[in-house]
Design a protein that fits this description.
Blueprint (H helix, E strand, L loop, with lengths): L2 E7 L2 H13 L5 E3 L6 E9 L2 H12 L6 E11 L2 E7 L1 H14 L12 E7 L14 E5 L1 E10 L2 E11 L1
Antiparallel strand pairs: 1-3, 1-8, 2-6, 4-5, 4-7, 5-6, 8-9
Amino acid sequence: MPRLFIGIDLPLAVKKRLGNIQHDLHLTNVKLVKPEQMHVTLVFLGEVSAADVVPITKILDGFPFHSFSANVTGISTFPYVIWASIEPEGQFRDLHQAMMMRLPDIKLDFPYHPHITLARSSEKNPVVQAAAFQVIPFTVSSFILYESTLTRNGLIYKEIKKWSV
């Protein structure tokens, strides 16, 4: 069964800047996310039967989506994760909530917190040295249904369908 999620791809310039930030943080005991794979997850669907992929895309075909401006605003941590914060958090949360309402069979075991994963750590509470951070602006103008496959070399994301304004 495919593992699916709905996400927002980031502009190449944002991914490049975040890749430079990863390098500047001098992180140890971590697995860095490759810049080309950086994204904002809106809804993690998990393992979905192949038969449900088309109905999910049909639900998303009718989703009312409008572009908006966003910013990468800093670096923080969750247990085992180093991530970049994004704003406006409320806009991402509203988008997440609206999608969850249209996908009633999807249940989350944790509260949604919009972010961009930069690295996964072997330590529960990774330490990140504070570095000067300049806000990185970008425009959200599309969302994508992705398939996620775990390989020996890490996760591989495959775009199933993209919706743009």
